[in-house]
Every structure is written in C-alpha cells, then in structure tokens.
Design a protein that fits this description.
By secondary structure, the protein is mostly beta strands. It has no helices and five strands. It has one domain.
Length: about 110
Amino acid sequence: MIYNARGNIQVTTDAGYGLYSADGKIRVTEVSGSSFVGLYASDGSLNVIQSTDPGLYHPSGALRVVEATSELGVYAPNGAWYVEGTSGTPTEDFGMNFSSEINSMYIALLEEF
C-alpha cells in the first residue's frame, strides 16, 4: 500500500530492487545532494533528500521529502512529499538519524507516478 491512513506516502530503504517493495511501499535511497544523481538510483529506487528549500525536485535531480509524524496529506508546505518510512538500517531509515547535515528537517516524498 502506497499511502498510510493519514494520506502520507509509505517508503522503505530495504535492500531490494525496483521501485516497489513486496508490501507495496516505494523504495527510496537518501542522497546528499552535493552532485547530480537524477531521480532514480541504480537499484530502481527513488533518490530523495531532506531539504527546507521549496519545491518537489532538488537541483541534484532527487525528490525533496519531509517525514510526516502526524501531518495529513501528500505534500508538505514547502512542496516536498510527506513520507512515512519503515524498515532499512537505523541510519538509513526514515524516522531514525539521517546522515544529512539538515537533521532538523523532515522527509517527504512523491505521490504515485
């Protein structure tokens, strides 16, 4: 299932291949945004970045995301996607400590294509 009960997009950082996991979540790969990476990672997942800047797309080609804690809907006020993530390792998992320099920012992702 792509959406949770609040209308946020559900994502995962699991080690599979392709855009969707077996349970219907969207696979994502966090990137730093320091160089151009494009929308898709080599494993078929979406490249995402935390960013306080407005807009859905980052100049690196990745999607801007905001982690939803209790917010409703798909889009955050800055235009990024609200996402809810589970699975993956603690440093990659949405809801855990990100290796990004913007630790205070949330993560959001896209609605289905």
